[in-house]
Amino acid sequence: MTLRTEPWPAGTPCWIDLHSPEPSKILDFYTTLFGWEYAEQPGDYHLAKIGDHVVAGLGPTHPAAPDGWGVYFASDDVDQTASTVTEHGGTLTVGPAEAGPMGRFVLATDPTGAGFGVWQARAHNGCQVVNQPGGLYWEDLRTSDPTPLAPSTHLSSGTSSTPCRWPATTTAPSGWAAPIVPSAAWAA
Questions:
Q1: Does domain 2-160+169-187 have CATH number 3.10.180.10?
Q2: Which of 40, 68, 81, 97 has the highest local Cβ count within 10 Å?
Q3: How many CA atoms lie within 13 A of 37 on its CB side?
Q4: Residue 104: closest CA among 128, 133, 74, 67
């Protein structure tokens, strides 16, 4: 099992959560799919776990964010990252805001409108189980036009990217970045 117990380096995908109109009604679905158990948090938010290790969050819809899975990138200073987002054409939809003792966050959109989050860890570092069934495995950005993103994305995260095209038979909607969480059942 790959476990992460230290804060993620800045710019690294570090957390995923699901915004849903009724998160408590879908817990059984994800338990069946991934074997998750839950620790209930304030505000109908649930930490999904494998054993004692946190893998994701499931919470209520936020008025400024779309329903669906979202990816958060680690930041050492969420206020500075928020400034970088807006300086390079992105839009802040929530925050910077406090998440109690757990950390601070921002929800934002890039210049094409694709949503993402930024997480500054305190008591909660983010995903603890990664690169295995039931844990975060792959993240990608779904956008109709990646051209305006390259300079701003690389300035804020220090990363590089390689564009790829979806096959004509695949639908890849724009919006939140898409986390991939493999199920043990998929390996069969």
A1: yes
A2: 81
A3: 5
A4: 74
